[in-house]
Every structure is written in C-alpha cells, then in structure tokens.
Design goal:
The chain is mainly α. It has seven helices and two strands; from the N terminus they run E-E-H-H-H-H-H-H-H. Helix 5 runs antiparallel to helix 6. It is extended.
Length: 192
Amino acid sequence: MKRWLPLLGHHLRLERRGINVHVVLQDPAAPAEAAPPPPRAPSRAVRGLDEARVELIGSQLRALLKRHPHARSVLRHLGYMEAALRKQGAEALDEVPVDVLKAALQQLESLVTNWQQEGLAELRSRLAVAVVERAEEQAAADAVAAAHPKTDAMDVDARRIHVAEASASDFEAAQAKWVAPAPGSPPLDPKS
C-alpha cells in the first residue's frame, strides 16, 4: 500500500498510440496539455477571400449545379466543394484533400464554358492555385516521409482518405469477392 501512495497525487490521462489507448500517469506539476501548434498561415488560395466573396462564389456554384438535375450525384467532387465552401468558408480550400480539389477543378472546367460569372471564374482561379500549392506541400511531405518511413500501419494521413456511398449492387459485388466459401462447399450465389 505504501508504494501506491505516491501515485495518488498524479492525474490520469488517456493517450492514443495507433489503435491502442494507454492510461498514463501525469505529474500534477506538469502542464495538462502541450501547447497547441501555432495556427497555419492561410494559403495563397485563401488570402484576400472575404465572406462576401465566398458567398458570391457559393451562390453562383449552387446556381450552376441546380441547372443540371443530376449534377450533384454525377459531379460529386464539385458538389462536395460546394458543401465545404458553405460549411467551412474560405478555409475549405486549405482543408479539402488536394485530390478532391483537383477533381472539382476538372469538373468545373468541363461544366462551365462561359467564364463571365465573376464567382465561378474566381473559384476556378483559387482552385488552381490551391491545387498547385497543396501539390507542392504534398510532394515535400512525401519526400520527408520517404526519408523517414512510418512503422505504424494505422498512422494514416486523414486528408488522403476518401469516403463515398456505394449502391446495394456495389456492396453485394464487393461482398461476393471478399466472402470465400468454406472448403468443399458450393460457391456462394451473390443474388441469394
């Protein structure tokens, strides 16, 4: 019991390491949390973009997507960009994964032929700047990662994860590929 008494003055803290959660004793004299990293400076794509400009870009993009009945389901990246601009504002250009930005730019360029609308032209310009800027950042990060490979398989870059909905037939096809029949049993029929 005496050896446990010194531990009573410590605080417990949960720490995530990969997929594991560890209980860590924290010295009460130590600060509770490390200082948060300094905020990142806005990228060139975001600088000078105020709320009114974001609203103009968003309204013109919404109007463009409303003209085509199935645009949001077919042009998912552009629809995602519209939603991200509405929810995050200009910061969406810094937060949305670069692959999504690139696809949204391609979709916007394929859909718009007349760049007279100021908001759409500005969106195109800012998407292009963001793609170039973020691709440079990604190349630098990849070079650092290649020099220092990660050993934890669960340590992934969340910006590189893409989630999309799948239809029931896509799910059944994937399930049929992944579910292997037991040895000696007849093959599974994916339609049953």
